[in-house]
Design brief:
By secondary structure, this protein is α+β, with helices and mostly antiparallel strands. It contains 2 helices and 4 strands. The protein is globular, with a radius of gyration of 12 Å.
């Protein structure tokens, strides 16, 4: 999987944050401090609902 960190994480290898990977059928998230501990995978609709709840402008703003 191609894991991505938020640009707000500082970009250094020791910046702790949540990482996200898009698998095609699911969106996976994991803790960057413990990448081998497993990932939570959710369907795209659930990810969109999550972004709508935590991003004031909705999922489109989070994708920028």
């Amino acid at each position: 999987m191609d894991w991505r960190k938020s640009s707000y994480s500082g970009g250094t290898s020791n910046s702790d944050c949540v990482e996200v990977a898009f698998t095609g059928s699911t969106i996976a998230t994991r803790d960057s401090k413990a990448p081998t501990a497993g990932a939570l995978e959710v369907p795209p609709a659930a990810w969109s609902a999550f972004l709508s709840a935590v991003t004031p402008a909705g999922p489109a703003a989070a994708a920028r």
